[in-house]
């Protein structure tokens, strides 16, 4: 006996009609999310991808000296190259001179090997006087470095389109002339220190935020509503106040003639003419960041502690546990989700902090973000800024991933 | 928190130590803000409590820095305030609309890959601002929107939407969907249902998300530092520039105004949160 299909009112089998409705609902949900998704994709995700691309893109020289590099493909890179390479150089450099676009290439090549700057400048100055044919000899006559194979090898080394040299620089490594990876010169090794300092500051800020936040979150969660609402303002007002206002208040407090130094002098811990430097060093960064990020620790802890029933602690005590034992065995384990959420949030925010270290940190208190900004705005080495940014981004996304696994991104609490 | 009479001494000591510690932490949180207020009324030019101020002598106080803020020659605050308000206004509208609509989709149980989409849409809040600033700057320069209000508004919409998405999805998590079905059964079309039933119910969440978006835009300095030209200067940029040069009493006056504003926003946000909790309480 064949089973008769259940039909809906319009004669279509119910199963099919349900599936259709399901599909329609799914489509509706996706269409609602689509505008924001596309917006973020185009104006945010795509530019971040572009940033990754910039950090490894190394086609500048290849693009500016196209004929040279075509000729160089046939050169083994050991002895001096033959005539075609010099002919290519002649044509490329003449064109650059005509268009007046050689500034960038000089800076880039000199970065590869010092001495390129005067070499290219001199060559470009004299290039109009060259006669046709036998360019190799004429080039060497202009500047003897054209007769030294190491300069031409260095030039050939810039041929690959992609390069991770900027990433090496970000961890104090570099390529030597034979393309081996070696340590950066001693006096230029700053990035390892910078990374370690950033992680160190973020770590200790997180620890201190936790130590300060745990008791007050507990107090807020256990006090009667009318008191806790009042005290909550102490947490929420800084949370809503402009970051620059809070940083400037720390600048007032920590300056040499400021209230904290007055207090230290008054207590006799330091002489009036020998006031300690509390600002423009890592102390300033550390203290100000701890206060500024504290609400981000208190709020997740509070929202978890609020759900813990006070009867659990009473039960612990009634079963003979001392307050300390009941706390360690009952209360503390229940707050671990809040601790995880708060710590990860504070750490993520701290590791990318820019404004506060820039204003109160000075040179010894500046973090990796400040260096990225420096390369974006002052040294204009955008590829390197992108590489540092990408390294930071990878770190942050790794923590974000852990956060998402442990806490769930939709459990972020605001206010 | 008074302790009962029979509390043992060691517990008593522990308890008061704990309360003192909490008091100190609250002090640490809130006191720095209050340092700024009196200094903005300083009659002298230095960022220092003068002896006259400490003696509460009226001569130690004045409104001259507020005067300077509003009428000072070549002062940048007028233009900066105007720009900040315009940018924050449009950024708030953009973030609120895009974020609310997306939150409706994300809260639907039919939404596929919900967690992945959520993680992606929240990411602008997590990624360090310096990276967002760098990436957005490259993009805006490429499409010719650097140093324009439009470019800044678009980037602030990006930074503001995560807050709206979070607050609105939180509100929707307690939302009783039978009311929209009831509306549909009574012949209302989806748009009408949304405007008349859903939106009023989730309004507290939407407004508190909008407040977050507004504050984010109004307070944002890193991305604007990359994008702004002289014409697009905002209050945070001017504060940043001022603070890098020297602490001036005028900055203290501006900071005081900002603290007053954040207090107002805090009160509004708190009232909304309570209203939202009440509304959701009824729904349950």
Describe the 3D structure:
The complex is a heterodimer of chains A (415) and B (284). With 415 residues, chain A is an all-alpha fold. Chain A folds into 2 domains: 60-161, no CATH class; 191-411, MetI-like (MetI-like fold). Chain A contains 19 helices and 2 strands. Chain A has helices spanning 14-56, 60-64, 66-72, 83-99, 103-112, 116-126, 135-142, 149-157, 165-170, 191-222, 225-240, 243-254, 259-266, 282-305, 310-318, 323-351, 355-360, 368-377, 382-406, and strands at residues 173-175, 181-183. In chain A, helix 3 (66-72) runs antiparallel to helix 4 (83-99). The mean pLDDT of chain A is 85. Chain B has 2 domains: 9-65, no CATH class; 76-283, MetI-like fold. Chain B is 76% helix and 0% strand. Chain B contains 12 helices and no strands. In chain B, helix 4 (77-107) packs across helix 9 (190-219), helix 4 (77-107) packs across helix 11 (235-245) and helix 8 (178-185) packs across helix 9 (190-219). Classes of the chains: A mainly alpha (415), B mainly alpha (284). The interface between A and B is large, with 88 and 92 residues.
SSE topology:
The complex is a heterodimer of chains A (415) and B (284).
Chain A: H1 14-56, H2 60-64, H3 66-72, H4 83-99, H5 103-112, H6 116-126, H7 135-142, H8 149-157, H9 165-170, E1 173-175, E2 181-183, H10 191-222, H11 225-240, H12 243-254, H13 259-266, H14 282-305, H15 310-318, H16 323-351, H17 355-360, H18 368-377, H19 382-406
Antiparallel strand pairs in A: 1-2
Helix pairs in contact in A: 1-19, 3-4, 5-6, 10-11, 10-14, 10-16, 11-14, 14-16, 15-16, 16-19, 18-19
Chain B: H1 9-40, H2 51-54, H3 64-71, H4 77-107, H5 114-126, H6 129-142, H7 149-173, H8 178-185, H9 190-219, H10 222-227, H11 235-245, H12 249-283
Helix pairs in contact in B: 1-12, 3-12, 4-7, 4-9, 4-11, 5-7, 7-9, 8-9, 9-12
């Amino acid at each position: 006996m064949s089973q008769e299909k259940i039909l809906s009112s319009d004669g279509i089998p119910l199963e099919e009609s349900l599936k259709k409705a399901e599909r329609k609902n799914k489509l509706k949900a996706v269409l609602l999310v689509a505008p924001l998704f596309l917006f973020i994709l185009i104006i945010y995700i795509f530019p971040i991808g572009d940033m990754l691309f910039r950090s490894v893109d190394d086609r500048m020289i290849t693009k500016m000296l196209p004929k040279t590099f075509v000729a160089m493909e046939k050169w083994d890179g050991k002895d001096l190259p033959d005539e075609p390479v010099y002919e290519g150089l002649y044509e490329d450099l003449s064109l650059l001179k005509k268009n007046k676009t050689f500034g960038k290439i000089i800076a880039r090549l000199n970065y590869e090997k010092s001495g390129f700057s005067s070499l290219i400048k001199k060559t470009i100055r004299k290039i109009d006087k060259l006669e046709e044919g036998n360019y190799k000899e004429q080039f060497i006559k202009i500047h003897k470095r054209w007769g030294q194979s190491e300069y031409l090898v260095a030039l050939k080394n810039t041929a690959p389109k992609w390069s991770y040299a900027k990433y090496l620089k970000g961890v104090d490594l570099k390529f030597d002339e034979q393309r081996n990876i070696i340590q950066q010169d001693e006096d230029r090794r700053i990035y390892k220190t910078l990374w370690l300092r950033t992680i160190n500051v973020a770590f200790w800020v997180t620890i201190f935020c936790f130590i300060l936040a745990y008791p007050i979150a507990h107090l807020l969660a256990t006090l009667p509503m009318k008191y806790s609402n009042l005290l909550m303002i102490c947490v929420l007002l800084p949370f809503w106040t402009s970051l620059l206002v809070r940083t400037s208040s720390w600048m007032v407090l920590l300056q040499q003639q400021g209230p904290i130094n007055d207090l230290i002098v008054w207590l006799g811990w330091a002489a009036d003419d020998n006031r300690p430097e509390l600002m423009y060093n890592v102390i300033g960064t550390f203290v100000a960041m701890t206060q500024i990020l504290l609400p981000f620790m208190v709020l997740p802890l509070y929202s978890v502690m609020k759900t813990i029933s006070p009867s659990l602690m009473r039960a612990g005590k009634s079963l003979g546990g001392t307050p300390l034992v009941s706390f360690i065995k009952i209360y503390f384990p229940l707050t671990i989700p809040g601790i995880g959420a708060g710590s990860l949030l504070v750490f993520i925010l701290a590791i990318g902090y820019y404004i506060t270290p820039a204003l109160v940190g000075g040179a010894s208190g500046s973090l990796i973000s400040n260096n990225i900004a420096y390369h974006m705005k002052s040294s204009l080495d955008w590829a390197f800024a992108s590489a540092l940014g990408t390294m930071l981004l990878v770190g942050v996304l790794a923590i974000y991933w852990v956060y998402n696994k442990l806490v769930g991104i939709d459990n972020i609490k605001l206010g | 928190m008074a302790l009962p009479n029979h509390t043992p001494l060691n517990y008593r000591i522990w308890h008061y130590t704990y309360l003192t510690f909490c008091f100190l932490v609250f002090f640490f949180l809130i006191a720095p803000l209050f340092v700024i207020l009196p200094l903005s009324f300083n009659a002298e030019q230095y960022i220092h409590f003068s002896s006259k101020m400490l003696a509460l002598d009226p001569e130690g106080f004045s409104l001259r820095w507020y005067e300077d803020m509003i009428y000072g020659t070549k002062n940048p605050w007028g233009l900066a305030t105007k720009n900040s308000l315009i940018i924050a206004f449009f950024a708030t509208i953009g973030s609120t609309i895009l974020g609310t609509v997306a939150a409706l989709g994300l809260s639907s149980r039919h939404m596929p890959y919900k967690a992945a989409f959520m993680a992606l849409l929240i990411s602008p809040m997590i990624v360090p601002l310096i990276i967002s600033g760098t990436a957005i700057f490259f993009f805006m320069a490429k499409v010719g929107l650097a140093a324009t209000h439009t470019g800044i508004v678009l980037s602030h919409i990006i930074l503001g939407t995560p807050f709206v998405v979070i607050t609105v999805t939180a509100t929707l998590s307690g939302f009783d969907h039978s009311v929209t079905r009831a509306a549909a059964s009574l012949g209302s079309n989806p748009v009408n249902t949304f405007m008349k039933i859903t939106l009023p119910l989730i309004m507290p969440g939407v407004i508190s998300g909008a407040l977050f978006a507004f504050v984010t835009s109004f307070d944002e300095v890193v991305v604007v530092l990359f994008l702004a030209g002289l014409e697009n200067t905002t209050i945070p940029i001017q504060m940043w520039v001022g603070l890098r040069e020297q602490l001036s009493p005028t900055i203290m006056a501006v900071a005081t105004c900002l603290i007053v504003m954040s207090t107002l926003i805090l009160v509004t946000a708190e009232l909304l949160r309570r209203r939202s909790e009440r509304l959701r309480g009824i729904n349950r």
